[in-house]
Amino acid sequence: MDDCGDNSDESPSLCTQYKMYDFDENPQNLGDFSQGLTKVDDQQDWSLYKGNSTPGLPTMDHTTGTHYGQYIYLWASNRTKFGDTAWLVSTPFQASTSDKPCSLHFFYYIYGSNGHQINIMYRTHNNGPADQVVWSVSSSYGAIWQRASVRISVSQPFQVIIEGQLRGSSYGVAIDDLSLSPGCSVSDSPLPALPVTPPTTPPPACTSNQYLCIINRMCISNRSRCDGVSDCPDSSDELGCGCSKDKFRCGNGVCINLDKKCDAANDCSDENASDEKDPSCALYLRFSFESSSFGEFTQGHTGIEDKTDWQIGQASSMSFSGLPLTDHTTGKSSGHFLFARSNNPGDTAWLISRPFGATAGQNCQMKLFFYIFGSSVHHLSILYRTHNAGPPDGQIWTSAGQQGPKWLEASPLISIATPFQIIIEAYVAMANQAIAIDDVSFTPDCQHSVTSLPPMPVITTVKPVTLATAATRTSQPLLPVCRNTELMCDNQLQCYPKAQLCDNRNDCTDGSDEAKSKCTCYPDFCLNGGHCLVQAGMGPTCRCVNNYSGFYCNEQPTINPTSAFHQGSNSNTEKWAAPVGVILALLAIIAVVGIYILHKRNRGHRFPFGFWRRTGSSDGLANPIYDYGTGDSDVHAAELEPPNLQDFENPSGMITFSTSGSVDNPLYTEA
User: Fold this and answer.
1) What does the buried/exposed string (b/e) look like for 545-563 if buried means 16 or more CB atoms within 10 Å of the residue's CB?
2) Higher per-residue confidence, 473 vs 623
3) Quick one: which of 427, 294, 285 has its CA closest to 350?
4) Residue 616 has pLDDT above 70, yes or no
5) Least crowded by CB within 10 Å, which of 12, 274, 423, 607?
6) pLDDT per residue as tens digits for the range 104-150
7) By C-alpha distance, which of 598, 633, 601, 637 is closest to 618?
8) Which range, of 213-222, 236-245, 424-433, 617-626, averages the lowest pLDDT?
9) Cα Dmax for the chain
């Protein structure tokens, strides 16, 4: 179980010397334990079970918190005899000392008003009854797993015995996540045998009006149970007796913690829910939201104090991610609860109470049930403020990250020296997801204030006249005002630089700048494969991969519009790229030919050209290079010899011009 919140207490480096059994990976392997000998040690066997909807058994195992996980259980039926037992017997362990005891840690589940028991015992022989009862429990705490830790110190080798005892014909007991400390060292030698003397008479069968002693199996009257006198030789009739001052005695005789009373949960597990019907519950402030009302709570001012609102919902009509299948009050899909749903990542919703009077020195306790489930790191916080507007003064309780698909209880004590308001704040990390709460209550010491809360102090700064420093006037005692580069400590008494947040040094006197809620990478804090890193001055931050962005790597990659345009253009040009290529090639050939021709002309090379005339015509300009012939003969073209520049030059090198000012043409002469 992750008690530290960062799983460091479950680190393999610390737990390698512990032997642990979760009944999931290899459920048939009980390791150092084996079943007791039926009809010798016990009457029944422990069985393996997987959580479902069977009444009286856990719907989820403790290891995984799902109905797929497994645990061991002992079940009562109509064929069960009162006092039937089932044993798990360990292998022999070496003697243990108080300095290095053999410790058992496990989670147990007892439901119903039958008074079923779980006993931890030991014996120093390999057969026979137990030598001593070390620990025992018979109280039902409702449909929840309870933790137990038992230390055993024995001066000689011994066996540990885990016994389940049935005292009725319904429901049963269950155990999960059993572990043995390093002090439980296996002995190299077997335990000695206990001489067995055949009983002359069979052990008596106890009636429902009698109590069965654990070790010697004798029956005593129920009236002798918990009467301050040990009537059983093993004193088992005085184990777990009575209810102390911090306990409430249920109608079925079971003791539960006082803070479990009047919290809208049947913690007594009796038919009448006696812990919820006690007359003192009338003094509690309780809100189940079944009347489609927010009770004494009001919404925060959207856009000023928060970004969204709480809503009343029913599981039967809800389809948002992260909401429960039933409410907590009735356990039905038709029951009502409150939920906060975000339209944008990081939206907050406030639920504000009526003003309460000062509770310092009082036993004021607030209780609520909450449901946080999903892939995002949502937060639920209980805050307070001592003015009728403005930000919270501090935080009373918070929970971050998904807690599994189940209702969980929060029950913080509230000790505030001045009148205040409670603020229930939901922080929903992802759009279209939600957080739910139900059954909010306050104990009788939480009394409403007879006066209203004062307004926020108005701070004005007056320029100095004769004083060396500025004078400040306020209508109330001033709290420190933090600059933009600073943050406020939770105690509202001092500011500290933002750069000193989560720097592993307490700058606030209350240590709030290094609080776990601000400086821890919770599971699934970063989405879509992002990596969480706690950085000084920033707290948990995400390094996103695969082009995701956003504070939680919750924003999907976007396509560049320019790139999209070019991609679209490329797909269109593929259709006419080939024809254009052919045209460009032809133009290139023509250009090469043209350049070649110009080059040849500039160097004085001859080029053959033919000239034609119309056939059958006798008219035309006389030209010595043409030979028309006669009749309809074909036209013959003679080759034209391009003139050389030297033909136009005289011996002096000057070009000769005719009297008419034209250049002489050797092809033509004047008459």
Assistant:
1) eeebebbbbbeeeeeeeee
2) 623
3) 427
4) no
5) 12
6) 999 998 877 667 889 999 999 888 888 888 888 876 766 788 888 88
7) 633
8) 617-626
9) 172
With bands split at pLDDT 50, 70 and 90, how would you rate the model's confidence at 280?
A: confident
Rounded to whole angstroms, the Cα distance separating 470 from 482 reads 17
Q: Where in the chain is the domain with CATH 2.10.25.10?
A: 498-555
494 — pLDDT class (breaks 50, 70, 90): confident
Residue holding tokens 């500025």? 470
Distance in angstroms (rounded) separating the CA atoms of residues 611 and 618: 16
Of 637, 591, 580, residue with least CA distance to 610: 637
- Round to whole Å and give the CA distance between 1 and 619: 121
d(C-alpha 260, C-alpha 275), whole Å: 8
Residue 350, strand partner residues: 425
Q: What is the pLDDT of residue 376?
A: 67
CATH number of 284-442: 2.60.120.200
Asked if residue 408 lies in contact with residue 371, where contact means CB atoms within 8 angstroms, the answer is yes
* Distance, CA of 476 to CA of 459 (rounded, Å): 9
Q: Which two tokens stand for residue 36?
A: 């007791």
**Sequence-separated (6 or more) residues with CB below 8 Å from residue 221:** 209, 210, 211
Count of helix runs (H) and strand runs (E) in the chain: 4, 34
- pLDDT for 611 equals 42
Instruction: Identify the bridge partners of residue 399 per DSSP, sorted by sequence position.
Output: 380
Mean pLDDT of 617-644: 48
Whether residue 237 contacts residue 231, with contact meaning beta carbons closer than 8 Å, is answered with yes
Domain 498-555 - what CATH class?
Answer: mainly beta
Mean pLDDT score, 234-258: 72
pLDDT in tens, 303-341: 788 888 999 998 888 766 778 888 998 888 889 999 998
Q: CA-CA distance, 454 to 595, in Å (whole number)?
A: 96
pLDDT band of residue 474 (cuts 50, 70, 90) is very low
Burial class of residue 252, CB neighbours in 10 A (0-12, 13-18, 19+) = middle
CA-to-CA separations, 506 to 156, 491, 502, 503, 534, in angstroms, rounded: 49, 13, 9, 8, 16
Decide yes or no: CATH 2.60.120.200 for domain 12-180: yes
CA 274 to chain centre: 35
Helix (H, G, I), strand (E, B) or coil at 308: strand
Contact 251, 403 (CB under 8 A): no
Integer Cα distance of 45 and 47 in angstroms: 6
Among 294, 342, 350, 349, which residue's Cα sits nearest to residue 321? 342
Q: What angle do CA 655, 661, 662 make, to 5 degrees?
A: 70
Indicate the average pLDDT of the chain.
Answer: 77
Give the span between the Cα atoms of 323 and 437, in whole angstroms. Answer: 10
Q: Structure tokens of 116? A: 């079923």
d(CA 396, CA 353): 14
Task: For the chain, report the end-to-end CA distance as a whole number of angstroms.
Answer: 128
If you compute the radius of gyration of the chain from its CA atoms, what whole number of angstroms results? 47
Beta strands per DSSP E along 538-666? 539-543, 626-627, 636-637
Give 45-92 as a DSSP string. --EEEE-SS-TTS-SS-TTTSSTT-EEEEEE--TTPPTT-EEEEEEPP
Residue 472: which H helix or E strand, with range? strand 471-473
d(CA 249, CA 513): 42
Instruction: Determine the average pLDDT of the residues in 432-448.
Output: 91
